[in-house]
């Protein structure tokens, strides 16, 4: 697949508003993913000519209306460009975020901690029930996107874990 | 008055409630699934909370998620819209338990009207005409025959345990009764694990007539007249209008009076719609009550000048009907609504995707309720209604001519819509003459769909 073909493919994906696309042809594999933030990720398994590296980046449709007012929710995506190593732990429910098991006790985790898959990272309280949120991967906790006592919506990024 | 309301819905009705909130100076909180991130109802709410992934069960129907959102946003009340959780008595109870006002009738009343047999029995007791039906289960074909003869053919047997057309048979004579009765029983047993059947008088060519009511929380009830919704396809309404050409002023007043008394008796509160079938002789028979605001409420708003959604909010905030409706309700002119769906106009296959052009009609007497917009994407997860085109004219002829004009100027590209279908309906001689019943669409499409 040459650069022109990839560009046409990407334009087609934007027109049809497809978010993710994977193509395998012979020993060439192309994976295209579009996101809210500026850069797209184009991962190519098979080594291709250098020209591939300068494939055009594709923004999300610019004619969509302004993103919803912040209101009770924090911004939907981290401010920095996505890092391929960073696993983002997102809230699976709506509720209120608490960093510790109870007021006054030490937080479950802090930045820099090594966490194991299944380890409890925080509590999200919903309708008077305390839900323990577990790490889905093992690694180092490098980012926290949320502060204690904040309301959280479904899908809100909570932590960034550098996988190991 | 409420400070903040959460709207437990999406699409055009969520936007409709937001409009009412804005005009009443109430903050609106929107909830949305990931598929609705760029929706208009999210855009125009004061606050918006994502509550789940696209699937209804995991988002808009997910009661813990909805209540959780209401709690973190600290709302006073929830407006459930139509469909979704609007007639879910459990949801209304959870709201009550959490100290959040549910904008609708009390859970017990919702529950009562939700059980069809109980609703019929209650209405019958209060003097509302109901379709003659068996008082309970019909045990045998012999019993069925006796009952059918006393009421007169045609009759219909229906499964007690479920609907959707299964365990249902129309029986038009003595001879065909035993076979049809038994096959309905087997089908019901197979579909619902319960072969019990009840029977009803069957009307071959019914018209669907419904009455809009409003009741405050102090025992006052009023009827706001009727809408005719006979133009349906597979039990989905396509076109609604008010007034009905078949409802005389006398009938309107009589039914209005009965409903006012009846709904007062059962403690009904807030908005509701009572649905009837009209037989070939013009008699009305109660079939069911919808304890919520309806899709086609704008039709009544256009002829009466009453804002039904604002009324719902004011009633729920405790205001008396006399403060909500400050002048006598008079129905003036004629209103028609066409439901525009994102479907192929002939195949009726759903058409999700990106709208590239969206030009809504305007001008005198035209209203468009929609949450669609150019460059917006219609997601595949939800129902296909994308816009309601409502017109009002001084009389029915003007309303039809205005609707035709408005449909012609409603340009949608990028997806298929049923706009062309509605244009053909407006040109149909029987429709124009007011000559139709709920089988109209079947005949219309069977005859080539007006092409």
What do you see in this structure?
The complex is a heterodimer of chains A (164) and B (451). Chain A has 164 residues and is mostly beta strands. Chain A folds into two domains: 3-54, no CATH class; 86-163, Beta Barrel (OB fold (Dihydrolipoamide Acetyltransferase, E2P)). Chain A is built from one helix and eleven strands, in the order αβββββββββββ. In chain A, β7 and β8 form a beta hairpin. The longest helix of chain A has 13 residues, at 3-15. Chain A is elongated. The two termini of chain A are 34 Å apart. The relative contact order of chain B is 0.12. In chain B, β1 (4-7), α1 (11-24) and β2 (27-33) form a beta-alpha-beta unit. Chain B has three domains: 4-103, 3-Layer(aba) Sandwich (Rossmann fold), CATH 3.40.50; 141-201, 2-Layer Sandwich (Dna Ligase, domain 1); 207-446, ATP-grasp fold, B domain (D-amino Acid Aminotransferase, Chain A, domain 1, 2-Layer Sandwich), CATH 3.30.470. Chain B is α+β, with helices and mostly antiparallel strands and 451 residues long. An eight-stranded antiparallel sheet of chain B has the order 13-12-9-10-11-14-19-17, sandwiched between helices. In chain B, strands 3-2-1-4-5 form a five-stranded parallel sheet. At the A-B interface, β10 of A face β2, α2, β3, α3 and β15 of B.
């Amino acid at each position: 697949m040459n650069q022109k073909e990839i560009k046409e493919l990407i334009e087609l994906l934007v027109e049809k508003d497809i978010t993710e696309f994977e193509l395998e042809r012979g020993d060439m594999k192309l994976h295209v993913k579009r996101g809210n933030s500026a850069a797209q990720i184009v991962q190519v398994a098979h080594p291709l000519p250098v020209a591939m590296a300068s494939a055009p980046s594709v923004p999300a449709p610019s004619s969509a209306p302004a993103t919803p007012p912040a209101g009770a929710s924090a911004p939907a995506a981290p401010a920095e460009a996505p890092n391929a190593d960073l696993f983002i732990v997102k809230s699976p429910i709506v509720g209120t975020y608490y960093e510790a098991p109870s007021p006054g006790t030490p937080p479950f985790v802090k930045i820099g901690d090594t966490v194991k898959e299944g380890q409890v990272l925080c509590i999200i309280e919903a309708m008077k029930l305390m839900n323990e949120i577990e790490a889905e991967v093992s690694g180092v906790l490098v980012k926290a996107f949320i502060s204690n006592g904040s309301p959280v919506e479904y899908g809100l990024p909570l932590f960034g874990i550098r996988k190991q | 008055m409420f400070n903040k309301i959460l709207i437990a819905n999406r699409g055009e009705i969520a936007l409709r409630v937001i409009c009412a909130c804005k005009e009443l100076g109430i903050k609106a909180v929107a909830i949305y699934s990931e598929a609705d991130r760029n929706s208009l109802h999210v855009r125009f709410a004061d606050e918006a909370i994502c509550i789940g992934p696209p699937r209804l069960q995991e988002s808009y129907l997910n009661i813990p998620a909805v209540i959780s959102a209401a709690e973190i946003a600290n709302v006073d009340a929830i407006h459930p819209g139509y469909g979704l959780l609007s007639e879910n008595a459990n949801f209304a109870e959870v709201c009550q338990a959490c100290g959040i006002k549910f904008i609708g009738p009390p859970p017990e009343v919702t529950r009562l009207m939700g059980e069809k047999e109980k609703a019929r029995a209650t209405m019958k007791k209060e003097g509302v005409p109901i379709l003659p039906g068996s008082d309970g289960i019909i045990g045998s074909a012999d019993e069925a025959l006796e009952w059918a003869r006393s009421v007169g053919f045609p009759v219909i047997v229906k499964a007690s345990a479920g609907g959707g057309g299964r365990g249902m048979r129309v029986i038009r004579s003595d001879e065909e009764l035993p076979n049809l009765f038994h096959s309905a029983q087997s089908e019901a047993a197979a579909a619902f694990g319960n072969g019990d059947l009840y029977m009803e008088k069957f009307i071959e060519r019914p018209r669907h007539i419904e009455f809009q009511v409003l009741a405050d929380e102090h025992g006052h009830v009023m009827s706001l007249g009727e809408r005719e919704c006979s133009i349906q396809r597979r039990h989905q309404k396509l076109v609604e209008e008010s007034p009905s050409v078949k409802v005389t002023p006398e009938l309107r007043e009589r039914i209005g009076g009965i409903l006012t008394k009846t709904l007062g008796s059962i403690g009904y509160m807030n908005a509701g719609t009572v649905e009837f079938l009209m037989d070939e002789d013009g008699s009305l028979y109660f079939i069911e009550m919808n304890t919520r605001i309806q899709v086609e409420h704008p039709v009544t708003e256009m002829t009466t000048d009453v804002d039904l959604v604002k009324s719902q909010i004011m009633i729920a905030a405790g205001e008396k009907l006399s403060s909500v409706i400050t002048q006598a309700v008079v129905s003036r002119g004629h209103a028609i609504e066409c439901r525009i769906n994102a479907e192929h106009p002939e195949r009726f296959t759903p058409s999700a995707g990106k709208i590239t052009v969206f030009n809504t009609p305007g001008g005198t007497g035209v209203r468009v309720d929609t949450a669609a917009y150019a460059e917006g994407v219609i997601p595949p997860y939800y129902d296909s209604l994308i816009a309601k085109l409502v017109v009002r004219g001084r009389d029915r002829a003007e309303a039809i001519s205005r609707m035709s004009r408005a449909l012609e100027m409603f340009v949608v590209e990028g997806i298929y819509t049923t706009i062309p279908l509605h244009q053909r309906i407006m040109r149909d001689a029987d429709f124009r003459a007011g000559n139709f019943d709920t089988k109209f669409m079947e005949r219309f499409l069977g005859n080539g769909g007006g092409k």
